[in-house]
Amino acid sequence: MPKIFEYFGFIFFFYSNEHEPIHVHVKHEDKESVFELIIMNGELQEIRVRQHKGTTPLPEKDKRIAIDFINKYYKSIVNKWVKFFVMKQAVKSTKIKNMI
Question: DSSP E strands: which ranges in the chain?
């Protein structure tokens, strides 16, 4: 389960047995949601939010924070996805200390 970002208590990560579409799990406190990144021609077109089985979903306020973060850092998320799942290389977690 590679953690890819930490952002003011939010943890952005992949599970090691993931599938397409490219997506990232976001956990805050004891809640978790999944954010699918719909990419066309290298640009983010849409973010689809879904619940992860067996977990309580993020509240709307936290989903909005996660969506804002993903909109800003989606290229890094995609790069880390490709590095981990396609190239089979380790990815480093990045701690973001500036509010977006």
Answer: 3-7, 10-13, 23-28, 31-40, 43-51, 94-96
Residue 100 maps to a domain: no
Q: Token pair of 3, please? A: 């953690």
- What is the pTM for the complete model shown? 0.93
Q: Buried b vs exposed e over 46-84: b needs ≥16 C-beta within 10 Å?
A: ebebeebeeeeebeeebbebbeebbeebbebbbebbebb
Condensed to tens digits (0 to 9), the pLDDT of residues 13-61 reads 998 877 788 999 999 999 999 999 999 998 999 999 999 899 999 999 9
User: What Rg do the C-alpha atoms of the chain give, in angstroms?
Assistant: 13
Contact (CB, 8 A) for 48 and 36? yes
Report how far residue 26's alpha carbon sits from residue 96's, in angstroms, rounded to the nearest whole number.
Answer: 14
Instruction: Give the count of domains, the chain.
Output: 1
Q: Is residue 16 part of a domain?
A: no
